[in-house]
């Protein structure tokens, strides 16, 4: 007989009120898979879009339970598991189903929670730190001595990117439309904070000595597209991670040619298993030691009980958070 | 006393009529430089833009003599030249000054004209073959078994790209707004030819089995921008080499993210010397043997005497050519 668990379910597409905690079937680990008792589930903007019916989960993930990441403790190991044993502390990204008491994942997509990081707060790590690490360092080859512009610097990915770039010897300029978020990002190690008003491109150019920035981490989208191309240095690289301001924008291809610049879109969710594994293994090897050494840390804005998930979604939609919002199951 | 030579001079910015053959000072080779007696000077669309005053030459190049490439014979070697001797047949790209009887270049930017290629027709090689080779294979990492979409397939870069991709085991789909150019590109080895009317995106998707193309070589620009993103495969790469249809266009960043696609601009002219050298050396090593083996060949539409340069510019502006237009000095 199948065991059950609590999970947050999208009962129909719509506003935050459609989310309900329900009792559902507990998933079971297959070969090479582990069952994790979830400590916390990070919220992501993509969850809001999925809830509204505009971002279906990949076919192999639960369709009606949102949640792209988890932290927790291994509860059970499936056949042929070699990396983990019951009781190990793990975290990772998911195609969906993260808002639940239990998740099942391929053992090689799970990452060991670094020493010194609590299991609950580790739920704030996977999506934002993996996204920032993958986009900036694996895809854009951001290197020591270069400069980066981080938009929406108070977001989850923004706060992760500030810390990762600081520890990599990269000069980070960040924007936010909220002055208090700019200030808090400066405390996290941001080199130059800029208010995201109409004059941000001029200020970024000033802050980069007129030369422009080498890499842009874009969590804003269409509204900033023209400005982004203006502030890119020669051979600049612009990576688009989120488009809350809108997806569409104008681009000047002649300027793109002149600068020999590139714009690339990225997303973690839709990647095939082997790429998620590759990212997880490299992340554990290269980024987790920074947590253990206290050079970077998860930034948690607030935690919510699962019953208050609608409230958490509203807070994210209103952009009130600095860093991550978590659902806690313990 | 300085020696003189004939050159095509931009007497003022304007239409084709502002170009005049005049007698100017012959350049002299410095250390590591060679003086080349030009056999032919390829025309490029950029020359038309420069003539109109919208594309100034880099500071180290002649400002009033257009011309981005040459073929010819080494006339004199400067001090410390080790690669070439008088009489060697060479070709290469230039920052400007190519419409002249003589050019001076750094010896390491010159490429040996392959056996079996006549010196005059070699003037049709450097810009278009180096641009296509660099954009597709060095920047976009186009690989055997992948597919490519080549817009303006009858242009100089287009005809070079068709041949290079064929010899690399890449499936090439090409568009042109002129049915005759589509036919001629098919004769050159293009796998699928498509008329560049409003339905080209649907036809490209059909021709790629619904999956889209891996790489787009774009010689059209703004007008095709939205269609290009639609026909790109997952992780597709779009490289922008020219924008005769206009520089501006709309882009859907959410689709860019979903496809994890990239758009990159490129231009040869503005690159620093070391990059031009690196490209020339790799081109000689990897591409020139294909000419010697008759697997690829320069495509010359017409040759013009320097006195008829205005006529040649008009032909290019009207897009009448299939392949390259050359000025011949012999």
Distance between the termini of chain A: 25 Å
- CATH topology group of the largest domain in chain A: Quinone Oxidoreductase, Chain A, domain 1
How many helices of chain A? 11
Uncertain runs of chain A are none
Number of strands of chain A: 16
CATH class of the largest domain in chain A: Alpha Beta
Using the CA coordinates, give the radius of gyration of chain A: 20 Å
- The percent of residues in helical segments of chain A reads 25-40%
Describe the main β-sheet of chain A briefly: 7 strands, mixed
Q: CATH superfamily of the largest domain in chain A, please?
A: Medium-chain alcohol dehydrogenases, catalytic domain
Structural class of chain A: alpha/beta
The H-and-E topology of chain A, N to C, reads as EEEHEEEEHHEHEHEHEHEEHEHHEHE
Q: Which pair of chains has the greatest number of interface residues, and how are they split between the two chains?
A: A-B, 30 and 30 residues
Count of the separate structural domains of chain A: 2
Q: What general outline of chain A do the C-alpha atoms trace?
A: globular
Instruction: Give the mean pLDDT of chain A.
Output: 96
Relevant terms:
homodimer; 330 residues; alpha/beta; 16 strands; globular; Quinone Oxidoreductase, Chain A, domain 1; Rossmann fold; 2 domains
């Amino acid at each position: 007989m199948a065991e059950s668990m609590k999970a947050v379910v999208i009962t129909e597409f719509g506003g935050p009120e459609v989310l309900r905690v329900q009792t559902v079937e507990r998933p079971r680990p297959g070969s090479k898979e582990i069952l994790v008792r979830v400590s916390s589930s990070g919220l992501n903007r993509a969850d809001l879009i999925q809830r509204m019916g505009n971002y279906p989960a990949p076919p192999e993930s639960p369709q009606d339970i949102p949640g792209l990441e988890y932290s927790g403790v291994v509860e059970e190991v499936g056949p042929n598991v070699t990396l983990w044993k019951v009781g190990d502390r793990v975290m990772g990204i998911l195609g969906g189903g993260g808002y639940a008491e239990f998740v099942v994942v391929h053992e090689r997509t799970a990452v060991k929670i670094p020493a010194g990081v609590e299991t609950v707060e580790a739920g704030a790590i996977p999506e934002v730190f993996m996204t920032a690490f993958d986009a900036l360092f694996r895809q854009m080859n951001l290197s020591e001595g270069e400069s980066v512009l981080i938009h929406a610097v108070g977001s989850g990915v923004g706060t992760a990117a500030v810390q990762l770039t600081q520890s990599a010897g990269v000069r980070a300029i960040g924007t936010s439309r909220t002055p208090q978020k700019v200030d808090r990002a400066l405390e996290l190690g941001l080199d130059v904070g800029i208010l995201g008003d109409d004059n941000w491109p001029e200020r970024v150019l000033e802050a980069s000595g007129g030369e422009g920035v080498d890499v842009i981490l874009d969590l804003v989208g269409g509204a900033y597209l023209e400005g982004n191309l203006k502030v890119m240095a020669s051979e600049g690289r612009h990576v688009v991670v989120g488009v809350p301001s809108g997806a569409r924008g104008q681009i000047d291809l002649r300027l793109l040619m002149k600068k020999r610049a590139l714009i690339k879109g990225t997303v973690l969710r839709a990647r095939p298993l082997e790429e998620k594994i590759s990212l997880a293994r490299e992340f554990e090897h290269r980024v987790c030691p920074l947590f253990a050494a206290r050079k970077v840390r998860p930034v948690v804005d607030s935690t919510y009980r699962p019953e208050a998930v609608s409230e958490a979604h509203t807070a994210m939609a209103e952009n009130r958070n600095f860093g991550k919002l978590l659902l806690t199951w313990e």
